[in-house]
Each structure stands twice: as structure tokens, then as C-alpha cells.
Amino acid sequence: MSAIILDQAIVHYEALGRGRPIVFLHGWVGSWRYWIASMQVASTSYRAYALDLFGYGDTTHDPLHYSLDQQASLLSRFLDEMGIGKIAIVGHGLGALVGFYFAAQQPGSVDRIMAVNSPMDINSINLKLKTSSASELVDWLSSRTPESVTALSDASKSDPRAIMASMSGFPADSLFQKFRATSVPCLLVYGQNDPSLIVPPIENIVTMSQHIHQINLENSGHFPMIDETARFNRLLTDFLAIDSGLSPRELQMKEEWKRRVR
S-S: 124 plus which of 78, 119, 134, 255, CB 3.0-4.6 Å? Predict the structure, then answer.
């Protein structure tokens, strides 16, 4: 286990590979652990990092650090402490919101973002996500396969106050609107069967900025990286292979992803 101290708080992380840096940020249920398969794939060309955010896994549990701005500050300070420059971000749920917040503040520090099952606004989030215990959320959102149970084994470590705090400032921030004003390439990925949020209609993509694209995975729920590991990691690899600065809409050129956006 690797950890650093940031302002007297312990931040747990794991790292694999060599190359350009990519940071994986987990969601409201679980920890860094469910990114292992994706980290292994990315680590062939990237230095892959996965963090436990405040209130999750083995990182410090302190309600003073649970807001979105504090979670984004964790990422910023981690990069500074580790001497890491411009990054790619793969964020899931809460992790996607943290990525958006960070990119809106420091767009020059982000090469691209893959945002997985990210709510667009507070009204798209199922109330059950905000009112259930960690064990109830795992039962509700995961497939309960042996692989899923192992990947989410840290869920019981989550502080439920971290979920509520991360959402309290979400509506007022107009977070996604602020991110859209940047030119950071962004791929929105949704598990079509995720019960925790309203998946935005795929047709909405035409109203978004050219640097944003959306792909839905029909056989995935809340955890596409677990539900369809091979397909998710192939999409991740294709997204990372796009030249820096290009729109992820280039993915439409591949038949695999054409089928996923109809």
C-alpha cells in the first residue's frame, strides 16, 4: 500500500506502469480497487494512478474534506506532491465530478477526461444513492458476481457523510456547465442500466461542445468497468489512443462504437 501525507491527512494510492500519467478516480461506492483491471491495461503505455478520495478506502475520513472542492484539492495537491504534470483522468460518478471540478479550475493540467456514469445535475441522481448504507448500495448497484464482490470489498470503509457532502454543493456550482466552457476533450460513458441516475439521451450530444462525446454501453449498469470489463477497457484504450487535443467524436470512425451510439 502506498500513501502520502497532505496537510496531516493520509491519502492512499496505488500506481502501475510507466509513461504519461493517468489518474483513476472512484465513485460513491467502493475505492481504488475496482480500477485494477483498467489500470493494468492502461499501464502498458501510461503511469496509472488510482486514489482513494477523502472518506473512502484507506484515505483519511474527515467531514471537513468531503466537499467537491476539497476532493478536487486532494487531486491537485497529490499531483503537486508527486511532481506529476498534465494528466488524463478516468472518473466514475463522484470521481467524474471531481475531475470536472479540477479541470474547470486547471484546464491546462488535463489532457482528456473519461467520465463514467456521471450525473449532469442533482435532479438526475436517484434519491436512494443519498439515503442508503454502503452495504445496501453494493447490493443495489452491483451484479454480486465473485469478481464484483472482490472489486467492491472496500465499500464498507466508505463514510456515508462523504456521499451527502459531495452532493450538497453540486447544484449551486453548475459544475458541468463550467467544465463545458473549457476545451478539454471529454468522453461520457454510461452503463445503460444504471439505476442510480437518469442516463442522458444520446441525442443530447448534438447540443454539446465539439470536444464532448457520449457512448452508452447497453449491457452495463453502475459499474461498466466490472460488468463489461473487456469492452470497457477496449473503449478506454481507443480513447487514450486519440491524439492529444482531438475530439473523442473520432471514436465514431470505429464500427464498434458506431453501434453503441445509435
Answer: 119
Q: Which residues contact 144 (CB under 8 A, 6 or more apart)?
A: none
- Does residue 262 carry a pLDDT above 50? no
Residue 262, CA distances (Å) to 19, 205, 214, 255 in order = 35, 12, 11, 11
pLDDT, one tens digit per residue, over 169-196 is 777 668 888 898 999 999 999 999 999 9
- According to the model, what pLDDT value does residue 258 have? 67
> What are residue 210's DSSP bridge partners?
none
Please state the rounded mean pLDDT for residues 3-12. 94
What architecture is the 2-260 domain classified under in CATH?
Answer: 3-Layer(aba) Sandwich (3.40)
Q: Is 229 helix (H, G, I), strand (E, B) or coil?
A: helix
Per-domain residue ranges for the chain?
A: 2-260
Residues in the chain: 262
> Within its chain, how far is the Cα of 108 from the centroid?
19
